[in-house]
Amino acid sequence: MLQTETKDEPATATGNMRCLIKHHAGTELEYRSDRAIPEPGPRDVRIKVSKAGICGTDRHIWEWDEWAASRIPVGIVTGHEFVGIIDKVGSAVTKYEPGLRVSAEGHTTKGLDYNSRTGNAHIATDTKIFGIDRDGCFAEYIVVPEENVWPVHPSIPDKVAAVMDPLGNAVHTVMAADVSAKTVLVSGTGIIGLMAVTVAKAAGASRIFATDINPPRLALAKKLGAVESYDAREGTDWIKDIKKQTRGEGVDVVLEMSGASVAIDQSFRALRAGGTAALLGLPAKPVTFDFNENIIFKGCTVFGINGRRMFETWYQMEELLLSGRLELNDIITHEFPLEKYKEAFETMISGEGIKVVLDIA
Ligand SMILES: [Zn+2]
Known about the structure:
- The chain has two domains: 17-163 and 328-359, Medium-chain alcohol dehydrogenases, catalytic domain (Quinone Oxidoreductase, Chain A, domain 1, Alpha-Beta Complex); 167-304, 3-Layer(aba) Sandwich (Rossmann fold), CATH 3.40.50.
- Helix content is 28%, strand content 26%.
- Helix 5 packs across helix 6 (191-202) and helix 5 crosses helix 11.
- The longest helix has 14 residues, at 164-177.
- By secondary structure, the chain is an alpha/beta fold.
- Mean pLDDT is 96; it is low at 1-9.
- It contains twelve helices and 17 strands.
- The strands form four sheets. Strands 3, 4, 5, 8, 9, 16 and 17 form a seven-stranded mixed beta sheet that branches. Strands 12-11-10-13-14-15 form a six-stranded parallel beta sheet, with helices on both faces.
- The protein starts with 15 loop residues before the first strand and ends with a strand.
- The relative contact order is 0.14.
- It binds zinc ion (ZN).
- The site of zinc ion (ZN) has 6 residues, from helix 5.
- Zinc ion binds next to helix 5.
């Protein structure tokens, strides 16, 4: 008998999909419903996206600043933080099957350079990122290499799984600095800074201090576990106050999340001699910085933090989420359907929302 169909294989989508693309070399993104659904290569999986987080990087792409203009290929589907369900797998995929709920590491590498081969793939020299160098997740479907897939634990809700990428930045920063039983200054309480507060608390930091120039975010930092939060526009007395509370020495650990040059300088002044600083915030341009006073004479240790460790950070993240100690509900403030993407971006850019998630399913 001639068999005309294979019963084992579930029907998969073909045709067009809804998505947001960078349609021109200028501001905003464009909503489209005529993009061809991508086909996975032999070692790829295709994921039907349920929810996707809007990142600060997406804001740069939306606003089309100098960095975006120099990096982003026009015509690309943007977005890199998401959760969804595997819908189709390539012929050489061995581990995963359609139906599995997953997120994915957004950095891809060929795995062949020095860092990839020595356990540091997050700083590989050939890194490509979803939604930046190749099509991303502000779409009904995304194709990713099998090795980038992260199966999501059933007790982690979609809304949280959609933001594991930035949460990974926060976890990587906190873990690099080793905060257990230490005093910590979180410099900058944007999305990842706020995540760093709850992560540092969950990871056993003794006392957390926070600085920013945004009073509602400073209030939220306290709600998430900071013992003090300081408005950096009100002078530098906060540094004295921190020293008073830390035996006159300064904090053990600085987590620099703002990228603001004044904040970088001030946070190092609040760091004790021999302390540790982990730097995630990206300055918009080169900064003037007193190396002698801030690093050399202090004998402190400085870590540059890029992305998430693949995949150590993802395991740490899952354990922290399952511990029930992370407070993310006040950080993930808004959800919008994909079609309301303009409202979603405006809510994020205006600062009214903190983490904004797009509902795509
Ligand atoms: Zn991101």
